[in-house]
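Researcher: Please translate sequence to structure tokens.
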Amino acid sequence: MEKILHVLSGDGMRVAFDKANLKGDVLVWKECFYEGPVPAGFDRDFWNARSNYLDLAYEEYGSDKAPYENWHTQTLPAALQSDPKEILLWFGYGLFCQINLMGALAWLQSRNVAARIAIVYPGEGEDPLLPEKYTPDQMQIFYDKKVILSETDLEFADRFWASYTQASPEHLFALSDKIPPAFPFLFQALHAHFYLFPSLYNGLNRIEEILLRYIEMALPASMETMIKGFAEFGYAYGLNNFQVIGHLKKISPLLITFNGQDINSFTPSQQMGFKGEITLTQLAVDVLCHQKNWLNFHDFHEWRGGILLSKRTNMHFWDPLEFCFV
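Model: Translation complete:
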């Protein structure tokens, strides 16, 4: 019987996979390439850059370099030692999963894998943030609809990843109308990525804009309602609760909590359990009205793939009206 390797998008998918009793070995993908620096190549510098970023970004949640180091130095290579004849990648349709999917494909090709490679897209229309709720019958249906990738598809994935890791967005933008049918959700995910660049008109990215607009609409808002609101209006990103809160903390100067506390001072448990009202500052209102630019009021330093966005470097802005970079 041919050996099969299932590459799963996360621990939630592992829960559903184990209940489905599907045959094959399992590798859980432990990355989030949509954020932080993503250099070219999968060499030591690449993994060091990722490890250092993740350790700092998730420090307050008990981040520990050791599990991640073990994953990319031991678990990843070991997954291929059984010489699987087919590799199935189970990844959803949000930006988080789609960028990880392309990274996983690029990593597999960097290892010169000879196996047949296919993608399993867990149900569109199902909750992508709760894959552990997929039933065994659903998992079997997803499996039966697997998409086997051709050489052309794999070559595209390589070009995509090379463009994603470059220091400018032009090549990636040029690929947006050349996506093969095997990647039906990549177009939407790629657009979501472009909207993560600061808007030319107010300096906000789309995630920040969604959060502020929701607070404006739902006044007064709470942490719970904002997370639910983002799941509805920001579904294209496929982020978990802690990632949403992470984005919220970056715009904390634009927010007012019921007792004046800074959201950045909250512990992780306080963040998730915060019941107080959250409203907008006057600065936030001015930014949403395009009367002021958010970048003028904070020290901006973020990565988008291989691109460092900083006021001290060559900034790339996204024009949502003309749909282009400037």
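Researcher: Any highlights?
Model: The domain at 206-299 is CATH 1.10.10 (Arc Repressor Mutant, subunit A).
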